[in-house]
Predict the structure.
Amino acid sequence: MAEVVRRELVYILTAIVVIIMIVDFFFAVPAVSAVAGELRTWATIISTMALALGAVNIIRVHSRNVRRRTPGVWYHSAWLIFIFAFVMLLGMLDINNPASNPIYKWIFDYSYVSLGQTWYAITGFYIASAAYRAFRARNVDAALLLIAGIFVMLMNAPIGEVIWVQIPVIGRWFNDVGQVPAMRTFLIVAAFGLLAFGFRTLLGRERGFYGEVAGG
Amino acid sequence: MGYPTTIDGILGIWTALALMLFVYSYPLFKENQLFRFAEHFFIGLSLAIAAIISIQTTIRLAITPLMAGKIYYIIPILLGFMMYFILHRDYRWISRYPIAILVGSSIGLGMRGTIIPNILSQIIATITPPKAGAVALSWFNFVYIGIGTILAVMYFLLTFEHRGPLLYPTRLGRWIIMIGLGAYYGNTVLFRMAMLSGRAQFLLQVLGLVPF
């Protein structure tokens, strides 16, 4: 019985939800559409509440560091927990409009937004060395990668046109036409992959996302 | 937007600059305490903002309808809390129920939404020839895209080993994919460098060397 509740019912529930979503799209039965609409809202609520689960988990890990005074780490963990608690408190003062609090707004504008851009741009430091490794013409595959990449980069850089006036024209061809077959293929193949994955889930053969691999 | 004139504005841009330099001290020098300070600050801040958005959305989508009389909205709220059993080894199985609804709806939406735009539209776009009177280059592009797509899709035929009659078509398909990835990677490199130059511009702006 326990096995039925823990596993079989879960697979059946997943299959029912998948079927409702598909029937709603292809047959447009009003009653099914209403249920599908509610299920979509429920899924949004669950995923939103699950978002905070990540925060809870990270705070758990860092609390353990502080409790155990892990050398070289615990004070950073304490700092992380302090910032989390402080910003949460500021946000909770007016949960409907946290930006009305000037301190929250200041932290958001000058720290969160700025650091977000900084972290995203940090890859710029590594992309040059990654490009060097990727763009070495060791064989035909790598040579084609190199040629397409170089022309696209020089197309956008002013120096490209200075080197040869046709470089932007060729670069634009690679950008607008040359990469289309590959990108179209990725879309088609990924779509078939999603369909296969969906049918496996529907039949209860795809179970990794239930956490069964991790045990429990 | 000019250079800030208020105390909080000036303090803000200098704080942003300091945090930026703390972060970039890692790639420019090595891992250090200032980098880890900025790293943990950002994680704590992001978590708090994510949690606040999560609470806001839950109130808007679940609590407000519940208060308005839709009693059955207690179910998704309970399901949301059931997710937290994933943290407890003995009761982890309870979290499978909300996961079932999440995964079921995501896969259902994905399956129904993928056929037209990602399969049918792509095939239609591939086999639609240029209009009458089109220049030779348009026809060349049409043939290149058509044959290239077929060859590249053949590369993903994983049911058969790529030898015999499949050897050369799949090899050509791989070359087509390499051209696509090269162009994509070239764009990625440029985009990331543009982001980095934006940060360099911010540094110069804060120092007053270029206008805001």
In short: The CA atoms of residues 84 and 131 of chain A lie 37 Å apart.
